[in-house]
Amino acid sequence: MLRNLFVQAVFLLILIIGLSGCDQTRQRNQGNQLFTKNPQLASYEYSHKTIPEGYAEVKTDSILANGFSASTTYFTHLQSRVYKIEKDRVNQFHKTEYYDFHSDILVYFENQLVLDTKITKELFRNENTDFWNASYMQDFHIDEKASSKNRLAFKVTFYNPSEEKFLDYHVLVDSNGQYEIEGVKA
After folding, report:
1. What is the mean pLDDT of residues 31-38?
2. I want to staple 114 with a disulfide (CB 3.0 to 4.6 A). Which of 133, 160, 163, 177 is the partner?
3. What is the DSSP letter of 67?
4. DSSP per-residue string spanning 81-95
5. Which residues pair with 100 in a beta bridge?
6. Sheet of 179-183, strand order
7. For the chain, what is the domain count?
8. Position 70 in a domain
9. 114 lies in which domain range?
């Protein structure tokens, strides 16, 4: 009799568990519908790269035969950066973060300080805001070929990684410390 009661209790328990699973919940929730509609979101790989990887600084002192000398400090501005995000064919996303650069310059003519200023991207901005919002200063150096007897020329290169486009400028400093900016034609 106890055995018969035990078999009945087990049978009743299996029946309750079986019936509770028949409320159509499994058929209603067949996984996350977001991934069935957009399978490319179901799995992807992500990589991140920063250029440069940390703070960078280049100090250069130059003396030219035309009476000019210059001291430049070209350095990363860690609070300003631009991003490029790419997706390849196998659902891998690549994010590259580029730090912007600034340059502090001291220009001397005949051993007299004539210019002490900071060169930033803001000096060059024009109406093409799409380019400037996604670009950074890639290079800054003295351009001896563009310098003359009365002027010292610095070449500044900006790069927009999203458009893969470069813009070059000259910062032309005269013997009085006045400077002007000119675009370099390719």
Report:
1. 50
2. 177
3. S
4. EEEEEEE-TTSEEEE
5. 77
6. 136-142, 151-160, 165-174, 179-183
7. 1
8. yes
9. 41-183
